[in-house]
Design brief:
Protein name: Lipopolysaccharide assembly protein A domain-containing protein
Number of helices: 2
Helix content: over 70%
Number of strands: 4
Strand order of the largest sheet: 1-4
Pfam families: LapA_dom (PF06305)
Number of domains: 1
Radius of gyration: 31 Å
Distance between the termini: 57 Å
Keywords: Cell membrane, Membrane, Transmembrane, Transmembrane helix
Largest sheet: 2 strands, antiparallel
Strand content: 5-15%
InterPro entries: LapA_dom
């Protein structure tokens, strides 16, 4: 299977899972509309809708995941650039060695042809 096709399948699976999570979250939010206070350390919020608390928690988690994944993405992109430069150098060296080998083979052929004459 081609890499592009694999990437497309992963994206479709990711979007499908995201859609399922969004639907389940929506159902959960609409079934939990009670007013609640949120306690965090010494801080207490005014009474707000449980749906809003759930939505804020979901968005905070998504943002945190995005930020952490962005760090990983930039690390991978940096490694790809580094490997691309290294690959380019190795290709150049390989081409040089192939030319050198071909030149040496041509010289051997010329010497053998001169020896026969």
């Amino acid at each position: 299977m081609k890499e592009a096709e694999k990437g497309g399948e992963y994206m479709r699976a990711y979007l499908f899972i995201a859609l399922i999570i969004a639907i389940l979250t929506g159902v959960f939010i609409f079934q939990n509309t009670a007013m609640v206070e949120v306690h965090f350390l010494n801080w207490v919020s005014p009474e707000i809708s449980l749906a809003l608390v759930i939505l804020l928690a979901l968005c905070s988690g998504a943002l945190l995941t995005f930020l952490l994944d962005s760090v990983r993405y930039f690390q991978i992109a940096s490694k790809i650039r580094e490997l691309t430069v290294s690959n380019k150098k190795l290709q150049t060296e390989n081409d040089r060695l192939k030319r050198q080998q071909k030149d040496e083979e041509n010289k051997k052929g010329d010497v053998m042809a001169d020896g026969r004459e």
